Amino acid sequence: MKTVTEFPRKVIEFPDMGIVMPDGCRLSARAWMPEDAGDDPVPAILEHLPYRKRDGTIFRDQLTHPYFAGHGYASIRVDMRGNGDSEGLMDDEYSEQELQDACDVIAWAASQPWCNGNVGMMGISWGGFNCLQVAAKQPPALKAVISLCSTVDRYADDIHYKGGCLLIENFGWASTMLSYSSRPPDPLLAGDNRWRDLWLTRLENQPFLAPLWLKHQHRDAYWKRGSICEDFSAIHAAVLSIGGWHDGYRNTVSHLATNIEAPVKGIIGPWIHKYPHYAAPKPAIGFLQEALRWWDRWLKGIDTGVETDPAYRAYVMDSVRPARWHPERPGRWVAEQEWPSSTIKTQSIELIADGSKPAIVASPQSCGLAGGEYFPFTFGPELPGDQRPDDASSVCFDQPELRDAIDIVGAPEVEVRLSCDRPQANIAIRLCDVHPDGASELISYGVLNLTHRKSHEFPEALAPGETVSARVVLDQCAYRVPAGHHLRIAVSNAYWPMIWPSPEPVRLALSAATLALPLRPLATGDDVTFAEPEGATPWATETIRAANSERHVDRDEKTGIVTLSITDDFGEVRDLDHGLAHGSIARETWTIHPDHPLSASGKTHWTQTLSRNEWSVRTETTAEMRSDAQNFIVSARIEAYEGETLVFERNFEEKVPRVLL
């Protein structure tokens, strides 16, 4: 990445700009703007997050926000209430309070003498979600949005549920937020006599969100609120949507480009859950230059040509050898002026010949361990690996060897007819690229709770033995399968630990299956190009402990238990400006017996540290999830230490009934 040190306008930073909400709650913001903005007002750009501007997102903030400011914007990074250096309490993700706070910050910024009255909002993941949801509320000053790695559907396409199946990330993310939000503000900003009171109040009111999310197992009003797919027409701001093929949110760019009536464009590259100016797998792109084109057009009224950009720009990845990490993915950029595109044709492939005996799907509960993380994050061993172990536990429909290469661009679908021996069952379908030597690379996958085959809102139990139809939509993809390889469609009724297992072992009889494969004419080169990545001066730190990620699968030959152990040590660093040192370690353990779905369990343990000179604090959060045939059982614990003294402890435990899950 090229570091830019000279900008058109000189930048001034405000490390703790207080923004007081109508109810008196003070939000802490870090802001950058041109030094002369008071004389020559500029548009404002807001990023509104719970992830701590002082030590959580500072790496990316330092690259991004001063860059925007140097090009004539007031760039504002706000800690949400109840997090980081802000006052108040947070009780859930995307709450009405959170969204109203963002609207109030937008109105505040637009009224400042250094602002020209136009505001944009951007963010990745949580920030990508809430900027879309805020846009749907139509605050008058909000003219444009850049949303990355986000969703339009809080129920069907987030970390909670997918295809009506319970994602283990529902529990995993609740554990993560328990750890993230239980840290104190920085005493240098909150004050030596105040930070501790704010921290203890935060700890006493900190929610463990897993039980709340588990109480909403179907698409009810809880999930509809904030899901912009409920009314795409509510979005009036211009939207630039960006995603990555190695992220969990692969479908949003297509959904927005298809449905938004306001100006909208989409870009999706080969990246994991990161901003694309420093993301991997490479190639990264000049995201900040693309963002400036968007901001300049919609916040300054400059003709930058964004309106004539293709509706959908996607990176078609070449086939590679399966690996848990790819530093880069060869491929090419393709562009579609309109999306959906008339150039993409659907090929229908019958997987089961008429008159054939039903294919019996009865997977071991450990099937899925090659699937990787829902949204890879660490530049480590989190991507899907060689699919052959999972293929061996699935029913596979291998297609003939390809005589010519094909480009798959879009969302494959599989229509199935099947019967089941239980009232509830899951089905997982994977589309794989099989190399001549048998190596199997995951292209895309989809899962469906078969009781949701007609509706996520009103599921219906299966009648054992009765044949039903269902449609499984796989995630969007853009992938070239070369000549000499062949496609494999692998079907299982378990996908651990991506989804929680059914309460009983299941046997599916698959009598018909049809693959709808979206094919684009073979691209011969790049349809579009992007500038090389740029960024402002990187964050200056001293490394105390280097980061490291590990992932191990162990099979106990005596008990049969299979255990996936994950350790993500995010390291420890000291900020060379304000001296705050912070460190973080996450540990996860997922266990299951191949024959017993009720043996499934997940455990997490997070350690967070903060220190400066003689001051130090530490939080330890642990959580566990298991189930019986009738209930999910979740528990958690917070321990908070000042130095080595335990100053706070709290336990959570709740049992939530299973409902067709």
Question: What is shown here, in short?
Answer:
The protein has eleven helices and 33 strands. With 661 residues, the protein is α+β, with helices and mostly antiparallel strands.
Structure description:
The chain is 15% helix and 38% strand. The two termini are 46 Å apart. A hairpin with a 2-residue loop joins strand 32 and strand 33. The chain has eleven helices and 33 strands. It is globular, with a radius of gyration of 25 Å. By secondary structure, the protein is α+β, with helices and mostly antiparallel strands. The strands form six sheets. A ten-stranded mixed beta sheet has the order 2-3-5-4-6-7-10-11-12-13, sandwiched between helices. Strands 26, 27, 28, 29, 30, 31, 32 and 33 form an eight-stranded antiparallel beta sheet that branches. Keywords: Hydrolase. InterPro entries: AB_hydrolase_fold (IPR029058), CocE/Ser_esterase (IPR005674), Galactose-bd-like_sf (IPR008979), Xaa-Pro-like_dom (IPR000383), Xaa-Pro_dipept_C (IPR013736), Xaa-Pro_dipeptidyl-ppase/CocE (IPR050585). One of its GO terms (molecular function) is hydrolase activity. It comes from Mesorhizobium newzealandense.
